[in-house]
Amino acid sequence: MGDLQPCPLKTSPSSTCPSDGRWQFNTNVAFRSDGQLVARLHKYNLYFEEAFDTPPQPEIVTFDTPFAGRFGLLTCFDILFYQPTVALMESGVRQLIFPTAWMNQLPLLDTIQFQRALSLGANITLLAANIRNDQLIMTGSGIYSPFSATYHHAQKGDPEEGRLLVARVPVLKPLSVGQSVATEEGVVRAESNTDSGYCHQENCFDSSHPETASAVSPSSVTFVSSMMYDSFTFVLVNGTEGKLNVCDGTFCCHLQYRQLPQGGSKELYALGAFAGTHTVNGRYALQVCAFVRCAGSEASSCGQEVEEAETKMDFLLEGKFGTRYVYPSVLASQLVLEQPEHLEKTAGGRVTMKHSNMTGGLVTAVLYGRMYHLDNE
């Protein structure tokens, strides 16, 4: 909802007070069951919202419940930034409420894809409610905990109607850095203090690392293609199994893959790396490892939007990041989320995601690193 706040022209700096003496904020509110207003957040990161002002200071807004402890509020574009999202989590809040009007941005920032990625990467519960507007490609809501995802993502042609999602989620208590969590789904999450590979079973992928291998495997040729308006360095996936490395500057990504036997699918895949500042429709610094299905049979189609795929992959995707804020996701054909089998972060910044036995074809597997500390450089 909109919130009108008086701005005293005489006492406020002219740089923050509008000339008409009032602020108009995009506002997220929470009410108690008896109707009492318990929380109000003014959105800090605006996205083409000319009717609204940016608050003079970012706000950390929480409220307590008798049934599940403390919740924090954020709104739409806020989710990509340190303020208020990470600031909330660093204050100990692990349950976030997220109303949004989010335009799907494949292949890396589809609505449910990033909602799930934040929940997994930050080890939090996220209650996300998106508006439904097919013309603006806005659809996709969900209830996400580190252990489960209950979501709905309307497809083209689906009726224009709301969907009520109900899920039982755990009450998450503040988590100290370095504490490991075993999930209900058998996915082991670890914030380990060693820099060794995680995989010790005989049937696991070999856990070699980008820095110790050559930057690119000898048979591979890198090329640059635009993905989400950023210039990714790619290398094509050839054959039914193998290992690949690709680097953007000193940032490198490593992939081990095994394509499952199937009909005569000729889908093209690539491994991409990007380290830099995204500057289109927002400015934020990134390090990204992405294993993506290309839109066509030419290398130039890698990085374009794809919603469907037939090829199922077992894979291990890994990078060494300059941030501990890395958000993992696996998106299968027709916008279906998959729960990674294994995630691990080491103290040295290495993040590993391993997955197999996919239920659908692989559209995107991504480790999306946010370099919040470089946003203003």
UniProtKB/TrEMBL annotation:
InterPro entries linked to this entry: Biotinidase/VNN, C-N_Hydrolase, C-N_Hydrolase_sf, Vanin_C
Record keyword Hydrolase present? yes
Q: Read off the Gene3D superfamilies from this record.
A: Carbon-nitrogen hydrolase
> Pfam families given for it?
Vanin_C (PF19018)
Q: Which UniProt keywords apply?
A: Hydrolase
Assigned EC number: 3.5.1.12
Task: Tell me where on the tree of life, at the top rank, the source sits.
Answer: Eukaryota
Q: Does the keyword Nucleotide-binding apply?
A: no
Question: Reaction catalysed by this chain?
Answer: biocytin + H2O = biotin + L-lysine
Q: What terms describe the molecular function in GO for this protein? A: biotinidase activity
Q: Which residues form the CN hydrolase domain?
A: 1-171
Which residues span the membrane? Answer: none
Provide the family line. Belongs to the carbon-nitrogen hydrolase superfamily. BTD/VNN family.
Tell me, in a sentence or two, what this protein's role is: Catalytic release of biotin from biocytin, the product of biotin-dependent carboxylases degradation.
**What's the protein called, per UniProt?**
Biotinidase
Q: Name the source organism.
A: Seriola lalandi dorsalis
